[in-house]
Amino acid sequence: MKTHPVIEFILLAAIWGASFLFMKLGVPEFGPITFMAIRTLIGALVLMLVLMIKQQTRTLLHAPWQLFIVGLFNTTIPFVLFGWATLSLTASNISVLNATTPLFGAIVAFIWLKSRLTKLQVFGLLLGFIGVYVLMYPQLTTTPTDTLLPTLAVLLAAACYGIGASVSKQYLTNVKPLASAAGSQIAGSLILVPISLFYLPQSIPSITAINAALAIGILCTGFAYILLFRLISDIGPTNAISVTYLIPVFGIFWGVVILNETITEFTFYGSALILIGVAFSTGALKLNTLFNNKKRAQ
Fold first, then answer.
1. What is the mean pLDDT of the chain?
2. DSSP secondary structure string, 195-217?
3. pTM here?
């Protein structure tokens, strides 16, 4: 049954926003490596099943090493970094910091793909990173030792996503998006599952932690990618990927409602600066467009 793209768009943002909640619930008991190994394994199984149904499994063989490298940067490294940061930072702050991914994507594309950056885009980059400082200012001033490295870990994870995006653009243009997503999760599984055998939890995790691992694998990885590709088909890739702007809203919402996290003025202003910076740096928001709309309104 076909649903409206707007509903799917909001649902996708809510699901991906909930991934930070599930990490907070599961990582402390499983450990970051084991938890993410479970996530990638479940995600890979779900996406492989979809590939089999669509008879697209052979597309994984078109660029296996490129898929493996993309999986390294899009799954393996960032997932573990997010998991480790979860032990120290709130789900709300991690979800907002994750929104810096397009900032790093623009920087990597500028350095690697020689993409041009306008002055407005450079301003957006500066604005976004100022937002990061504003967002994390309370923790950096009160508990700098416990905050700085986890914050840098999340930013490094976002930078990995930026690298993965450029690798995909450079080498995977002929690979179907669903195969690329499945290959990324398979690569993550091949790396993380063997390593996780050395980091198994010393006691059996609680039902809450187990459910969190299942939810993040099935919902936030497998089902979310399927939903994303439905949206790309219905409303186009540019509109679909703008879900990035809505994920922090749900990340904060779930953190407040489920985990009783508190929202301060630093959360609000930092989030606003980051999202506006992302809008400028990606070209989604242009000053001439704003001025033209203002003139039409007058």
1. 89
2. HHTTS--SSPPPHHHHHHHHHHH
3. 0.89
